[in-house]
C-alpha cells in the first residue's frame, strides 16, 4: 500500500518515486504540507505503522442466530391486490388499480397523491368508488 501511494503521487505530479520521496520527506516520515483556511501551514504525516497489514482473529460462534429484524411491508403489486383492501377507505369491495404515468406529475396536494409519493409507487389498489372519485377530482 505504501509504494502504491508513492506511485499515485508520482503519476499525479509526473515524476519518479525517488523525487516524490525527496519532496515529501519530513524527519524520516512521509508528510504532505498544506495551508488551512486561515493561511497557516499544516503538515499531515502518514505514519508507517498505518501501512502494516493488520490480522484479526475470527471468533466463530456456531449455532448463534443473528438478531435481525425483518420488516415485510406490502409494497409489491401482487401483495397489495391479494390484501383485497382499498388503500384509501379500507373497504373490501372489488379492487381496481389506479395508475399515473410519472410520480413527478403529482403535486402532492391531495390525500391519494401524498400516499403515492410517500410510497414511491405509480400504482394504487383502490375500490371502484374511490377510483371514480379520484378521476372526478372529488377525493381530497
TrEMBL record:
Residues 86-131 form the AI2M/AI1M-like HNH endonuclease domain. Pfam families: AI2M-like_HNH. InterPro entries: AI2M-like_HNH. It comes from the Bacteria. This is AI2M/AI1M-like HNH endonuclease domain-containing protein. It comes from Dyadobacter jiangsuensis.
